[in-house]
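Schema walk-through. Below, the input block comes first and the output block second. Nothing else is stored per chain. Lengths vary across the set, and this one has 429 residues.
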Amino acid sequence: MYAQDEKLANNSYYTATAQSLPEQPVLQGHVQADVCVVGAGLAGLSAALELANAGFTVALIEGKRVAWGASGRNGGQAIAGYACGEEPFEKQLSLVEAKTAFNLTLEGLDLMRARIKAYDIDCDWVDGYMTASVKPKSSAGLFEWADRMANVYDYPHLQKISSDEMPEWVASKRYHAGVLDKNSAHLHPLKYALGLARACLDAGVAIFEHSTVTEIQYTDPVVVKTAHGQVKANFVILAGNVYIEELAPKIAKRIMPVGTYIIATEQLPHDLANSLIKNRIAVCDNNFVLDYFRVTNDDRMLFGGRVSYSGITPPNLPVAMRKTMLRAFPQLESAKVEYCWGGFVDVTVNRAPDFGRLAANVYYLQGFSGHGLILTGIAGKLAAEAVRGQAARFDLFTKLRHIPFVGGKYLRTPAQVLGMAYYRLRDYL
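--- output ---
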């Protein structure tokens, strides 16, 4: 998987259009800190920033570079809510707690907006996100969901877009109807993550890159070891997602690395780019195996959605994804694909986030399930609160029960492939 991941990172539109962070040092020797955060993606950066601003000394350890993983390669959609929807929360918790969990994602949106303003992060933020349906049956379910979110969750930002109105919003015959979320948004995720990293450095966080963690000693203080050094810390936050399998096998079996891929076209004529999606909102369909797309600030179509459960990149990926894009937007027939990249997201069985403790002083954050741009930020904040002795909001998520994938590490993939074949077939019915 990891060799594939290296290749997937090589041709990213985000990397090509973001100002890189100066290389941070490799961890060497013995370092003492109040808190050690493992993983410099959005969750780790968020936790580190919160703790540093609260007066803690923080060491942030990254095996590659800051935001190298999903945090810097995702679709860029900042969406309220969870990949699992509300159902797992309502089934396992009370309705009041389910509402609290949903409202935390709204707090996450506010947190992103506040950090962008406070730290002057130029990350191409655009308000507006639409969930689109591809057939009447799924449109009815989508509208029912919108009504329930307004009536039960008191969420007033959803606007139903009828089939008659849909061509005004998305210039594609593929989409039947939609629900516009005026509160959600999209952005350049790598620019945002690197902006948070710069804020962390300014706040005094010690960031170590190219420092893969090899061992964690669950003592007090905790000892986090790399090939060339170690950190002793009173608390540890594990925010490595799919990359911590060997460090935390107990929780790693509850997530599966799922490959997801994105293409970006060459720059389009400005008038054509403007004609594709009204107000340049982000769009995602409501199939289980979904497509998502948006127009960038420099007039490119960014189109994603193909997935892999094997860890192997699908063959002829740019060609296959371009074909899917043209199915939605045949008017892009002459547009060349200039970038094609991807990465792995950490998916749980029920698509609900998995936060908890491996020891009294060791916290973990995982299972964002492809819906983590907002959730990672609030997750980092909640973990920081827990370290500070205010764990009530963090512990809301520890109440969620998570089961391992069927078949363990080696058989979970074929089992998941069979399950996804069913859902893919259902999408076409």
